[in-house]
Write a structure and sequence with these properties.
The chain is an all-alpha fold and 194 residues long. Helix content is 65%, strand content 0%. The protein starts with 5 loop residues before the first helix and ends with a helix.
Length: 194
């Protein structure tokens, strides 16, 4: 990989498919997923700051969301049941992901590298990381709902498990999303725009 190829590499996100172990009625790639996660992250940050006494750097959080799956350009999207099967696999995957991040950062010009490295640093801001993780899970839940609406029952267990994992996070802004905004994802376009 050459220095300065980072941005060409990120454009390849559209080729990395998600949900590899599931039958999909409509494929999803990490580029479209990352945009949805960024939009949801923005909302969750605004909810945290306006309703729940937070002081999150919204711009930093949204950028973190945009880049959260970039390492998958190298690693591919490892399905959640595999990634979290046991502590050894999870640890090994974290090492592979870390190596992918280092490889990707080597393609960013030296004078910009520190700025991009911060976006991949999981220890940089735990509050932001928690919100991005919640947004990531909400995006997965939305995919489950869309698949169910298309008659695909393969996502029923994933939908239930994802709701449970979001609720276990105990983030008031994520709970607000589930109660206030999630129901409209089950509506038709006509119902949503009335």
């Amino acid at each position: 990989m050459s220095e300065k190829s980072f941005f060409a590499l990120t454009s390849r996100m559209k080729y990395i498919s998600r949900w590899g172990l599931m039958r999909n009625s409509r494929p999803e790639n990490i580029a479209e997923h990352s945009l949805e996660v960024a939009i949801i992250t923005h909302l969750l940050c605004e909810l945290r700051n306006r309703r729940f006494g937070g002081n999150i750097d919204v711009s930093k959080a949204v950028l973190t969301a945009v880049y959260h799956d970039v390492p998958e350009i190298i690693t591919g999207d490892l399905p959640t049941p595999v990634k979290y099967y046991d502590p050894e696999i999870k640890s090994a995957y974290k090492r592979v992901e870390g190596a992918a991040v280092e490889k990707l950062l080597s393609t960013v010009p030296d004078d910009l590298r520190e700025d991009y490295a911060e976006l991949f640093d999981e220890s940089s801001d735990p509050e932001i990381r928690a919100i991005v993780k919640a947004a990531d899970k909400i995006s997965a839940l939305i995919k489950c709902i869309e698949e169910s609406r298309s008659g695909n029952t393969d996502f029923a267990d994933a939908e239930r498990q994802t709701i449970e994992s979001i609720e276990k996070m105990k983030l008031p802004e994520a709970d607000a999303f589930l109660s206030e905004f999630l129901p409209s994802y089950g509506l038709t376009l006509d119902e949503q725009t009335r």
